[in-house]
User: What shape does this take?
Amino acid sequence: MHRADLEQAVHDELRRLPLPEAPSTLLPRVMAAVQAWTFRPWYQRAWFTWPLGWQVMSLAAFVGLAGAGVVIAPSAEQAFVAAMAARTSAATAALGSVLGHAEAAIAAGRIVWRALGEPLVPYAFTVVLLMCIACVAFGTVLNRVAFERT
Amino acid sequence: MSDAAFEAFVRRFQDMVFATAVRLLGNPAEAEDVAQTVFLRAFERFDTIGDSPTAAGWLKAVTRHACLNHLARYRNRWRLFSEMGRDDESETPYEATLPSPDSPATAFERERQEQELERALRQLPDHQRVPLVLFHFDDMSYQAIATLLGVSLGKVKTDIHRGREALRKHLADTDASR
Assistant: This one.
């Protein structure tokens, strides 16, 4: 059967299906949910539907917080700047100490490398190169013997 | 707004909303949950949609989106399994599974076949059932379905075709077992 024929045949069959009926429990469930939604507490609703007293109180609280923020902000900013300056100077001193230790560690590392590492580099390089060649040779043989490719 | 008016509204559209949900989700219990959510949203806007001629379309669109959101957590599985091959080829022609116009098929037989088809539709995997339902029941184009589901056009066509083949096979099996 061609795709178009199958599409048409399935379409006709599906469209002939009767609409499945909703279970008898759906309507009571919906109405119960609607009741619960209707009678939910005022604070779960939109602000403009709150009782007038709560609207006024919340507005006053908001204005009070905003005003306090405006008043406190300059002095808070000064305190923040002073605290940051103190911390910055302490951090700079600590950083200088860490840099000194790092320099000493790097110098020690250089000495160890010259004494132990550098003499072994040619040998290590040779070993790696030989292993690479061995891998290529093994892969070639495996390809020809096991997979019969040329 | 009165409760009686809304109750009448629910009675009028509950079958349509439930049918859309159960065909998309393939699960009556989940479909009932989604239908309840949809009607609660309708209640919040009942002043505007209660008497509107577009209420049915609004309900159907909201139901569709609620179902797709519900299925969203299965999207990864949807993409994974839909790419796998299938081994459910059937040589039985689809026409052979349908009663011919001249056959003395009874109303009972017809009803039984419809129930089988509805059951087969619900048993399809999500990635086949959802685009199939959107195509055949909601009259959406392949491209619109691909955009809605966020998948490629080719994938939508493949999934729908596989869904149709699965329905054909199911009906053929049903027919053979009679």
Summary: Confidence is low (pLDDT under 50) at residues 83-99 of chain B. Chain B has nine helices and no strands. Chain B touches chain A at residues 3, 6-7, 10-11, 14-19, 22-23, 28, 32, 35-36, 39-40, 43-44, 93-95, 98, 114, 117-118, 121, 136-137, 161, 164-165, 167-168, 171 (CB under 8 Å).
